[in-house]
Specification:
- Keywords: Signal, Transport.
- It holds the Pfam family SBP_bac_3.
- This is Amino acid ABC transporter substrate-binding protein.
- The chain contains 11 helices and 17 strands.
- The protein has 2 domains: about 25-125 and about 230-285, D-Maltodextrin-Binding Protein, domain 2, CATH 3.40.190.10; about 130-225, Periplasmic binding protein-like II (D-Maltodextrin-Binding Protein, domain 2, 3-Layer(aba) Sandwich).
- The chain is α/β, with parallel strands linked by helices.
- Helices cover about 40% and strands about 20% of the residues.
């Protein structure tokens, strides 16, 4: 039988305590000590977080994260704070935050109860719902009309989980395809290997606006979900969350967030310089009257 000597046991305990100390160190403390701030971003979640023609991460959520980064820089006194950018996919974004590989996820992630078991969220920056993208000549208007046909959604997303549940609970008989990202899903509809792409409607409008042939697609159907989208951050980092929540509430109540909304949802955006022309919904306006990180989902 293997036995650990007392000196060896002491060394092991010291290593374990050191590991726990590093793990327990909050983001703000790490930045104060000269660490980098890591922002996770998406590559095709237009207009929230995506790559422009030069391959740089841009978007509505990216702009918000940069505002939050500036508050973090000032709070920590890290005048020369370095920001690192880490690309993530829908399938790995939660793990990246949960494992501490990034400090903020700047994208289009839904704040829901299941995810709150693993990560934290700040005040929602958008409220949307899942609908269907189909080809312009499609006659489909309801999910039930796709019985026996291929329907695609992106791996690791809430809409994928919803259509899977609807399929099993109501025997809709959909043939569900999981795409690696939004662009792949759009391509499958364009090529006819899928009849519809189910995703948050704002992302669908963004994909259509940035596609080479926007007239080839349309968004149809009733809302299948209600999705409060929010920036994700590590669970348990109280100091970081308090700072981020305060700044998000300030941006909303001061209306400083409104020009950002107009820039990304009402004006032409890169790379194609096409406007989504998507006015703020009554759901978001009402929610922002009393901004909070608490959502009933």
């Amino acid at each position: 039988m293997f036995r650990l000597s007392l000196p060896g046991l002491g060394a092991a305990l010291l290593l374990a305590c050191s590991a726990l100390s590093v793990q327990a160190q909050g983001v703000l403390d790490r930045i104060k000590s000269g660490g980098h701030l890591v922002l996770a971003h998406r590559e095709s979640s237009i207009p929230f977080s995506y790559l422009d023609a030069q391959g740089r991460p841009v978007g509505y959520a990216m702009d918000l994260c940069l505002r939050l980064a500036e508050v973090i820089r000032k709070k920590t006194g890290a005048r020369d704070m370095v920001i690192d950018y880490l690309p993530v996919k829908a399938s790995d974004r939660l793990a990246v935050i949960e494992q501490g590989r990034a400090d903020l996820e700047c994208g289009s992630t839904t704040n829901n109860a299941e995810r709150r078991e693993k990560v934290a969220f700040t005040v929602p920056h958008f409220i949307t719902g899942a609908r269907m993208l189909v080809r312009a000549n499609s006659q489909v208007t309801r999910l039930e009309e796709l019985a026996g046909k291929n329907v695609v959604s992106t791996r690791g997303t809430t809409p994928l989980k919803v259509i899977d549940q609807l399929n099993r609970q109501h025997l809709v008989n959909l043939k569900i395809i999981e795409a690696n990202d939004h662009q792949q899903a759009l391509k499958q509809v364009a090529e006819g290997t899928a009849e519809a792409f189910v995703m948050d409607d704002v992302l669908l409008y963004g994909l259509i606006a940035s596609s080479p042939s926007p007239a080839d697609f349309k968004v149809v159907g009733r809302y299948l979900t209600t999705e409060p989208l929010a920036i994700m951050l590590p669970k348990g980092d109280t100091a970081l969350k308090q700072l981020v929540d305060e700044e998000m509430k300030r941006l909303i109540t001061s209306r400083d967030i409104y020009p950002l909304y107009e820039r990304w949802f009402l004006r032409p955006i890169p790379p194609a310089n096409v406007a989504l022309s998507l006015p703020m919904s009554y759901l978001l306006r009402d929610f922002w009257k009393y901004p909070t990180d608490q959502v009933p989902f």
